[in-house]
């Protein structure tokens, strides 16, 4: 079993009958969704899923997981999602798969958030992984210029065919290749990004995660984050 599968299956043990479950996106959350599908089919688990991307929606429908949209539920009991980087103070970068907007909406309406990662995602400071910024196409060149002027090394994300990547909401992604974001500067950066017109959302997920499940060796490590 690989580390992503290990943490996906472990996270599924936090899901019980009757829950409304946020289903994350990416190659790690994939295994969580598979395990929930298996438990529904084999053990009669009864849950309602809220997906965070079109890709996860497709996977969940294929597994006969009952789904509702975030607007059809009063709240989400628990959301399980991957992450691109988690710092030593448990702040995160997400959006490597371009799903940050729906992921943040679902996460911020969840009573509990679990992140599942292999140990390579645990870092001292964020920023080695480029920080994804979802922007409206109109005016995106102006934002690129602004980020450039600030020395944030922005790059418009392209598809494998060299087209501008479009998110599930038909926006673009600008990745900021900053190399490092000191832990004591992360909130300041997030607040500044929040002020920019044309920025829909950014990939800094701050003070959101409650539990981190890390895949390492032969068994996962679970860390409950106290804030
Ligand atoms: O937009 C994508 C999400 O934030 C993913 O959860 C994140 O990129 C981690 O994905 P993976 O588990 O494939 O590394």
List its traits.
single chain, 227 residues, alpha/beta, Alpha-Beta Plaits, 2 domains, 4-stranded antiparallel β-sheet, globular, binds ribose-5-phosphate
What does this structure look like?
Substrate binds at residues 25-28, 81-84, 94-97, 121. Catalyzes the reversible conversion of ribose-5-phosphate to ribulose 5-phosphate. This is Ribose-5-phosphate isomerase A. Homodimer. Belongs to the ribose 5-phosphate isomerase family. This protein is of the alpha/beta class. 28% of the residues lie in helices and 24% in strands. The strands form 3 sheets. It has a 6-stranded mixed β-sheet, sandwiched between helices. The relative contact order is 0.17. The chain has 6 helices and 13 strands. It has 2 domains: 3-121 and 206-217, 3-Layer(aba) Sandwich (Rossmann fold); 131-201, Alpha-Beta Plaits (2-Layer Sandwich). Helix 1 packs across helix 2 (29-43). A hairpin with a 5-residue loop joins strand 12 and strand 13. Ribose-5-phosphate (R5P) binds next to helix 4.
């Amino acid at each position: 079993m690989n580390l992503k599968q290990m943490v996906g299956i472990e996270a599924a043990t936090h899901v019980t009958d009757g829950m409304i479950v946020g289903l994350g996106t990416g190659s790690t959350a994939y295994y969580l969704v598979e395990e929930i599908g298996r438990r529904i089919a084999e053990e009669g688990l009864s849950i309602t899923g809220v997906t965070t991307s079109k890709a996860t929606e497709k996977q969940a429908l294929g597994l006969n997981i009952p789904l509702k949209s975030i607007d059809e539920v009063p709240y989400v009991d628990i959301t399980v999602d991957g992450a691109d980087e988690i710092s030593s103070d448990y702040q995160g970068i997400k959006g490597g798969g371009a799903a940050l907007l729906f992921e943040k909406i679902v996460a911020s309406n969840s009573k509990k958030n679990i992140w599942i990662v292999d140990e390579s995602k645990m870092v001292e400071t964020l920023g080695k992984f480029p920080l994804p910024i979802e922007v409206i196409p109109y005016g995106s060149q102006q934002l690129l210029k602004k980020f450039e002027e600030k020395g944030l090394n922005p790059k418009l994300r392209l598809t494998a065919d060299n087209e501008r990547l479009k998110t599930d909401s038909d926006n673009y992604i600008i990745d900021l290749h900053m190399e490092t974001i000191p832990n004591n500067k992360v909130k300041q950066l997030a607040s500044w990004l929040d002020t920019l017109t044309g920025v829909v959302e950014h990939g800094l997920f701050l003070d959101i995660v409650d539990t981190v499940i890390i895949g390492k060796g032969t068994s996962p490590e679970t860390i409950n984050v106290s804030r």
